[in-house]
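thread from #wetlab-drylab

HS: before we spend reagent money on co-crystallization trials with glutamine, can we at least see a predicted complex? here's what I'd submit
DV: go for it
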Amino acid sequence: MKSARMIAEHVQSGGSAVAIVQETLAKIDADSSNAFRETFPTEALAAAEEVDRNIARGSPAGVLAGVPVAIKDNICTTEGRTSCGSKMLENYRSPFDATAVTRLREAGAIVVGKVNCDEFAMGSSTETCHFGAVKNPVDSSRVPGGSSGGSAAAVSAGLVPIALGSDTGGSIRQPAAFCGVTGLKPSYGQVSRWGLVAFASSLDQIGPFTRDCEDAALAFGVLRGGDPKDGTCDPAPPRPCELTSTNMKGLRVGIPTQSASDGNADSVTNMMTGLRKQLASANADVVDIDLSLLDQGISTYYVIATAEASSNLARFDGIRYGHRAQAPNASPDELMALSRSEGFGEEVRRRIMLGTYVLSAGYYDAYYNRALKIRRMIRDEYLKAFSSCDVLLSPTTPSPAFPLGGITDPVEMYLCDRYTVGANIAGIPGVSVPYGRDQDNLPLGVQLLAAPFADESLLSAGAALERLRDEANIDGAWNA
Ligand code: GLN
């Protein structure tokens, strides 16, 4: 499959978007990863015909003209269902498109279908999806990561060049690393969340999966920009994202000392050792950074995220939204309790209970308020780090993709996100770039972080890292 920019150029110069969409739909039909929840052949082909017609007529073509895109199941589309991987919303149809989806369509992209995710985006493996686990296209015995596992798998398997995901604590970057693709979590406030089913509103961001940073910049330029429907979104108008220098020379790269943790797989440790040398020989300015609060990230995240989730998910009660239990003689309270017990899976129920607990009278100060204080300290620590470096570099994950069913302990699963949650807690942008493979041929990922709203320089540094990787003949993992 070609990159998004190659497809768009082809269509802009008269190539058929319809043919591209037909080819894409056939590939999705033949795919066995369970990445897709459903496809929209009729609507997608009609949209492609319109793109072809407009271009034939000489109307200006969008920057994503004819590019097939997949949308995570927790982002609203008027086609199909928006189920959030849950029985609770198994048949929910959104009456509107998310702003991010509207922006893609306006740029000429073709929405070909919805992709599976962990239930309500809670998980790191896509195994909590009510519609079946997604398999990693690189090795079908492994998880694709999560929660945006379907989005990562769809790009990794070469089905689409761009897929939207959401990232609350790592759900774009971790699956990108596991599947050998690029995943961008923009700064908090860069991309409108209107139409994203909320998990933890102070942490959630929508972002693209692509095969490289140049395509990520193309998609991000379309997605970002103010939206009156999302008051947390920076009002600056949509504008293209230009990659500046894609050279490592002189770039101040901070490596947190804490990211060389004992818990890393050997392959991850070796990748970091090799990368450090490559950075030095490319004349990057490598500095060690002490992020002493990095270890507090997971506990802080699991207090704040569950607290917000317990509030956001209160609307799914079988009356306002979601699955309704068949219980004709039940009182309203009983009906809600029954509907929620039937509609939500185990992990979602665990989060709601945890979140309700940390917000309850008597525990609020000890947990929620304390987590907010640590959150501020974590943010301050990152901001201080960015006064002495341009980007922070670490592994994206402590290990490569684990086997399906390989992690059953929830806390062990939560620890998969120890390098990613910090960016959400601090609101800063992060990108995962594929960087080599382990002895079993599984992709490894490197995470770069930058200061708030420095998304453009982040992607430029990501492109520089890709160049370094390619020049050193290290596998770029994306292989379909
Ligand atoms: N894996 C993390 C969680 O389970 C992050 C999820 C996400 O970013 N949506 O909460």
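DV: Residues 1-480 form a domain with the Amidase signature (AS) enzymes fold (CATH 3.90.1300.10).
HS: ok that's useful, forwarding to the group
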